[in-house]
Every structure is written in C-alpha cells, then in structure tokens.
Amino acid sequence: MSRHVGRNVARKDGTAKTTGAARYVDDLRWPGMLYGRTVRSTVPSGSIRRIHLDFDTSAFTVVGAADIPGRNAVSLLIDDQPCLADRDVRHVAEPILLLAHEDRDVLMGARVHVDVRPTAPVLDPAASSQVFKHISIARGSIDAGLAAADLVIEGEYRTGHQEHLYIEPNGVLAVPADGGVTIYGSLQCPYYVHKALCTMLNLAASRVRVVQAETGGGFGGKEDYPSMIAGHAALLALKSGRPVKLVYDRAEDMLATTKRHPAVVRHRTGVKKDGRLVAMDISVLMDGGAYCTLSPVVLSRGCLHATGPYRCANVRVDGRVVMTNTPPNGAFRGFGAPQTLFAADVHMERIAEALQMDPVTLRARNAFRPGDVTATGQVLGPDTSAIDVLKATVRRSDFRKKRRAYAGTSRGIGLSLFMHGAGFTGSGEVYLASKASLELTEHGARILVASTEIGQGQRTVHAQIVAEVLGLPIERVEVEAADTAFVPNSGPTVASRTTMVVGGLLKHCAEEMKDKLGRMSPREYVRRHGTLVVTKQYEPPPGLVWDDDTYTGSAYGSFGWGCDVVEVEMDPVTYEVRPTRVTTAQEIGRAIFPLGAMGQIEGGTAQGLGYALLEEVVMRDGAMANAQLTNYIIPTTLDTPPMDVTILEKPYAHGPFGAKGVGEMPIDGVAAAVVNAIRSLGLDVREIPATPERVMAAEQASGDRRKARGGRQPGSARLQPGRSVRSRGPSGPRSAKPRQGGSR
Amino acid sequence: MTPAFPAITFTLNGKRVTVKAHPLKRLLDVLREDFGLTGTKEGCGEGECGACTVVLDGRAVNSCLVPLAQARGARVDTIEGLKGRHPLQKAFAERGGAQCGICTPGMVMAAAALGPNPTLEDVRVGLAGNLCRCTGYIGIYRSIKQANTERRRGASAPASPTARATTLGRGRGPGSARLQPGKSVRGRGSSDPRSAARRKGGSR
C-alpha cells in the first residue's frame, strides 16, 4: 500500500508561500545593484537609422547590439530572433537598446529617441508569404472518404491570442561572477536560459550559472522569453560589472512577451447518416508573430490534436504557421492543442446539429477506444479512456436532462471531449535525453533535477515518488533548487512531462538507490560508504517509434483524456454569457498528489473559461492595445463558477506509478464546451473569445437569416446532391429558428 | 542631494514605526524597500490584481494605490504580521489555496479581513479584487472553509494563536469595504461589490 503516492501530503513549498517568506526575483537585492531597462521599437516593421540618447549618460550603463560578445540571437530552435535589434525591427516592443542605472526613477526618466524608417508590416497571417513550418498528416484517402459520405459539413473556427497573465511578471537578476554571470530568474527552463547565454555571451558552460528564483506562475509564458531577459540583464551586468535587476512591469510584460498563437482552423468532414466519420479534411493556420521561437512545435501539437479524440480512416491535416510583424507568439498551456481541439469539438457539435443527433451519442460513436489507430498510425493503448470520461461527465452533470430542461430559457449547456498527448511530441524526448539524479544524504535523499516548481507541485510530486520507493518520510526527501551549478539537465518544465518523464527517471533512481542500500539506513550507508548519487537518463519505452519526415508513428507515449460539460446563462440584454457550472472528468493515469492534480484541473478550467469568454487581446497596428489588467480581463472569483471534478485513473505502463501528465489538458476542452453551450441557445458562434459583441452579432445574424428566409428552416450543412439527410439548427430554445449555413 | 522628507509614523504589524520617505511613495514600496517586508507582492501596480493587499485599519487595501501619507497614524498589517500562525496560512498550504504563491499573501490578507465567519458568497465578493491564475479559486475556498472550521473549534481557547488574527478584520460584511468619509484614497475597488461588477462588465 502506498504511503505517499496518491495521498494529499502538505506541499513542500506551502509554508514559505503562505508566510511571505518565499523569495521571488523582485524580492532579491544585491549590494551595488543597478536597475535595467529595455528600449523597444514602437513600430511593427522598419529599419533603424539612428539612436539618440537625450540625457547625461555618465552614470548609466548603455548596451546596444554591438556590445554583444557572442551571437546576437536568442538561441532556441533556429536562432532567428536577435537579442537586440541591429538594423531592422520586425515587431512593436522589439528590444533595441538597454540601459542601467542605480536609481530607478532616473533610469525611467531617461529619454531615448530611436529613429526608425517604417516599412509596410504584414499583420494578416493569411497574407503572409513567410512560412515558419508546414506540417502534413495523411491517412487513407480523403477523396474516397468524402465520396462515401452521406453528408459533408464544413466550417471555419477562429481563436484569438491569449495572455498568460501569471500574477508575477517576468524578471531576472544578473550577477557578474568569476568572469561569467549568475542568473536568478522567474523561469521554467534553466537549461534553455543557460544555452542561450552561452551562445549570446560567448562564454563556456562553466561560466554561466542559472538559478530559478521562486516563480509566480508560468503557463508556458516563462519557457522561452526568460532567455531574452536573462541575456539583457547579463549584458548590462557584464558591461557595468555590477548586479542588474530587470523586472518588467505589467504593461511591458503584456506588450512584449509571448502569447498563445491565434489560429484559423477549417474542417471539411464526411459523415454517414448514423454519425460515423468517414473523412476529416482539416487545415490549420497559426500566426507565429515576428520570429520563429517555438512556433514549429506549437503547430505540431496543434496538428496532432486536430482530429480531436475521434476515429476516422481518412484524414488529412495541413498546417502552417506563418510570420507576421507582431510580437512572437510562444508556448502557452496546451501548446497548440486548445486551438485545434476547440475547432474539432465545435465542429462535432455542428455535425450533431446537422444530423439531428444527440451530441453524446455522436461522440460516443466516434470516440477512440483502445486499439484504435490515430491519424499518424499510432495504435492506442489500453489506457485510452475517451468513453469513460464521456460517460462520467454526462452522468455527473445530468447533461441530457438539463439540456431538455434549459430549452426555451436563457440557459445553455454544452459538451466537449478531448485528449492531450503527454510529454514531448514524437522523438522529442529522445533528443532531450533528460537526466535526473538522486543523492543519498544522512537523513534521506536529495532530488537533483532541473524541473522547476511553478505552482504545479513539482517539488511535492517528485518528493512523493522518491519517498514512496525508498520508504522514507517525505520530510526526509529534500528537493534541491533548480540551479544549473548543481542539477543535471532534466529538460524543460513544459509539455506535461514533469511527473511522467522526470518523475519516472526519479523513480528509477530511487529504485536503484534502494537496491544499493539493501537493509542499511541512509545514515549507515553514508557512514560506511560515503555519499551515493544515482543518475538516470531517459530511454524511450519499447515500441515508441516516430518518423519526423512522414509524420507517422507514435506521436506520444500516452494520452490523457477529458470531457467537460459547461452550463451558461446569457443575459438577453447585454449578451454577456456567464458560466454557472462546470462538470469535468479527466483521466490522467495516476494522481500522485491528488490535491495538486485537482488544482491543475480547476485552475486550467478557469483559464479556459477566460480564453472562451473574457480574454481578448486587442491588436492594433501590430501591438497589444489593451496591455493592462484594467481591460484585459481574466476570471475573478465572480466569473468562476462551481466545478465538479472527477479524476479517473487508468495507469500508463511506462509512467511512474502509472502517471501521465495533467498540467495542460484541463484547458483543452473548455472553450468548445462553452461555445457549444452558447450554440444550444441557437446562436451560431464559432470564434473565441465569445464576447458580448460576438454573441450579439450571432443573435442578429440569426434574426437576419430568419427574415431573409421567410422563417423556413435552412440546412446548416452543405448537402450532397441526391442525399436526403436534412440538417437543422441546434437543439434549444431557438431550434426552430433558421441559422447560418455553410462556412463563413 | 536627498530632499528632507517628513517623518511619518504608523503601526506596522503591531509595532510603532517611523519612516522618512516621500509622502506619495507607494505604501507597497515603503513596506518592501524601507522595511524589507517582501511578502507583499506587486502584480500589476494599478490596483487590479490584489497581490499587494495589506490590511489598513482593519480593511483590505491595495498597497500599490495607497500613498505613504495615507498610512500616517494608521495600523498596517502585512502577511509577515501573521507570523505563520493564522489558521488561514496553514489551510492555504494544506488545502490547495496556494500554488505558485505570488497571490497568496494578498489573498490571505484579504481573506483575513473578512473576519472569522464569512459565507461563501462573502468570500466570492470579498476576494473579487484578488486575482489568482493558478487555482480557479476553488482551492482557495476550500482553504478558507477549513480555516473557519478550525477557528470555530479554537474559539473557546483564549490563548489560541487565532486570537490576534481574528482581530485583523472587523467581521465586516462585504459591503462594508467602502471607505470611511474623509479618506481620499480609493481603497480596493474590488472589495466593494459595486466596483467588482464594474470591473467585470464595464471594461471590455
């Protein structure tokens, strides 16, 4: 019986965080410390002609592109993003010049004029000719599938930017040390920063040390951009010879750092009368922003989730992510999947509407079961749980009964079914070759990993795994700070991989340590043999094969599965849609720390409600026009409804104690369930956020169509000639009303 | 040349303190820089997120919106003043109220200011100006509920560590967060249900 795994132990970081003792980067001060500032582009595209410093520079440290000792690039995938713009600027807020001064007010008051000759920006992704990445997935024959269909349904679905809105803005403190530099930062991936600094500063690996400070939320937003900020702080620190703190205020963080990629997803789907999917033709267009950053990988995950959790013999997914002159988009919880899963499950709802079929029945008919084959040819394992989560959520939410009861009222109820691949895509984990170490101490053991605690409970979960194997009280398992001077490269803290992959390595470390200890206590072993460090490196589970060239094989070791039911109430005057209840069941293999897993599901769901309803990044001339919390709205207590959360466990054979990932999946399905709830009111919404303006437009459009068609019920789907299936509007109070047909 | 600032005296976590700083310096910066009390966090600097919540004369305020002059003669309580002994602190650590922790000190102070027995609706309205991006607030409600249960249990014991804590708030209902007449600085709009509603609907 497990003593730690599956139990709600006290969080390792709980006391420090609830007493205010935990030290975040802005809480750190160093003697002689300067403050740093970034001078940025105010135009989306142009060439720099002249930089004029309109102040007495004597007590300032000034750094431009010419001061970069190594390569002027933020090293990540293709290194196209400069650390400081040299000749050209490609987006608003692109860094151009750095200043440091010991007095923050003097620093902020310094006037810098950057003379830029503007050039015409590309702001519309559909008009962009520069493709960062193109992905094709093909299975079976689309033409044959469409020919066999009784009905073909098309649609276009749009998702907007989303800002992470971690409550702690980005920040870094750089301290010059021994001919190199030490970084303390709010960050997810110490070794990403380490690699970027070695390249940028032309320093040996031993001269760069990166230490994670306590980090006030990440959600992907502190995956790649901290490398940029750390580079800036390090350049200022090395030039001045003094510690430099560079902490963004909220406006700068929102204006300059990454967001979720906006996407346009088109579906053309062939179905049989009984609801079986026979062809899925999907195109995905994502806006990458001005530089490549992580866009190819985001697109990859988006395409690999584009079918949703549905079986189909004939699939084509064609994805592109393109350049625009807007700040680069990057990692955000879900990493491309929330965009494509939104499209997939709103489209599924429209198929149900067209077939006049119960939405649960349609999904159950097509949902993946163990042994089914995905679009990439992956044979799904015995832990495939789409049907289980669907059944659990429908039952607990009383979905069918409420759907009938809400008909004719201003209340709606909607459903979504989704999955999330755990860990890096395809062969990514093999390339990462992550390592984890466990050190025996007199009292117990010390965990040495580069995984970062960003609120998700990494320290607690890892300690539980080690304590369980070694049979130690959890207090005796220490977790070393994520400090590149002491911990091996365990890969980035992203992709729902920290429990499944790094936790799995730690389990192997602990098992070997247990063998070596035999019957000795840690104290006896250390006294007799000295210390002991066990290190393990990732090896792929047998049979996990992936081909990057053809996009075939096992995309992920395993998937988590989820189903959301969201109930909403629409204000008929203001068109505000308020979520009133969420019911969700999520299958995650094994919940090592159930309270933590629950927190991920609740928090991810709330973030998904914001994505669906509230969070609109208004882009104007290539810049975020609402870069402040006053008018970029995230859910408050009053916007967040009660949630009924069920965790299901079907162990994954290669996860520690059966665990898969849980960090990202909770945000994947919320938007589709919200929009499907709005659709149940008879409103044809296909774009998020579903702001009152968009809901009102849908209401007016349905009124216009009603008038234009003289009240006759139209087909919402394009019927093939000779086919007799009629479609109708969504069920609900206005189901008798005509609604929009075809795709926009 | 450093200008001579007037000395301003107030009570900080139960002790009388005096500070010489610009009277318009944000209370947030005074706490963090002049007193080293970094438990109070800055999340937005515009009074929207509540990470900088402290309790001023018994009511929760955003310390980023309070100039030092406003604290003159007042009683200011910060997370450090709870000394880790408030039942809310233990409950937030145990019941999922804290994840990344950056909103936690402000959230705990705002919750403490609600007094010992808020209803769930009091909590929802009272915390509407404290943003959390990690928990969806559900873990926070769980934590507050547990703390209340423990407080009720410990209420009969006068030496209980909760005794001081319960005097923090004045048992206010959510509506009583309105400012006293004569105070010119706006308190946290969000403690006030009317401004919470404004925030929610008015700014899109």
Notable traits:
heterodimer, A: 744 residues, alpha+beta, Aldehyde Oxidoreductase, domain 4, 3 domains, 6-stranded mixed sheet, 18 helices, 27% helix, disordered C terminus, B: 204 residues, DNA polymerase, domain 1
What is the structure about, briefly put?
The complex is a heterodimer of chains A (744) and B (204). Chain A is of the alpha+beta class.
Write the layout of secondary structure elements.
The complex is a heterodimer of chains A (744) and B (204).
Chain A: H1 14-19, E1 34-40, E2 46-53, E3 61-63, E4 88-89, E5 95-101, H2 104-109, E6 112-118, E7 131-139, H3 142-147, E8 151-159, E9 171-177, E10 180-185, H4 190-201, E11 208-212, H5 225-240, E12 244-247, H6 250-256, E13 263-271, E14 277-289, H7 295-304, E15 315-323, H8 337-355, H9 359-366, H10 386-397, H11 399-406, E16 411-422, H12 428-432, E17 435-440, E18 445-448, H13 458-470, E19 477-479, H14 498-517, H15 522-529, E20 533-537, E21 546-547, E22 552-553, E23 558-570, E24 577-587, H16 594-614, E25 619-620, E26 623-624, E27 643-648, H17 670-679, E28 687-688, H18 692-708
Parallel strand pairs in A: 1-12, 8-28, 10-11, 14-15, 18-19, 24-27
Antiparallel strand pairs in A: 1-5, 2-4, 2-6, 3-5, 7-15, 8-13, 9-10, 9-12, 13-14, 16-23, 17-18, 17-20, 21-22, 23-24, 25-26
Helix pairs in contact in A: 4-5, 7-8, 8-17, 13-14, 16-17
Chain B: E1 7-12, E2 15-20, H1 27-34, E3 53-56, E4 59-62, H2 68-71, E5 75-77, H3 87-94, H4 104-112, H5 120-126, H6 138-154, H7 162-166, H8 193-202
Parallel strand pairs in B: 1-5
Antiparallel strand pairs in B: 1-2, 3-4, 3-5
Helix pairs in contact in B: 3-6
Which fold name corresponds to the CATH topology of the domain at 83-166 in chain B? Answer: DNA polymerase, domain 1
Series of secondary-structure elements of chain B, N-terminal to C-terminal: EEHEEHEHHHHHH
The beta-strand count of chain A equals 28
Give the % helix of chain B. Answer: 25-40%
Radius of gyration of chain B: 16 Å
The strands making up the biggest β-sheet of chain A line up spatially as 3-5-1-12-9-10-11
- Please tell me what the overall shape of chain B is: globular
Strand content of chain A: 15-25%
- Give the CATH superfamily of the largest domain in chain A: Aldehyde oxidase/xanthine dehydrogenase, molybdopterin binding domain
CATH class of the domain at 83-166 in chain B: Mainly Alpha
Helical run tally of chain A = 18
Question: What gross morphology of chain A would you assign?
Answer: globular
CATH architecture field of the largest domain in chain A: 2-Layer Sandwich
- Taking the alpha carbons of the first and last residues of chain B, their distance comes to 45 Å
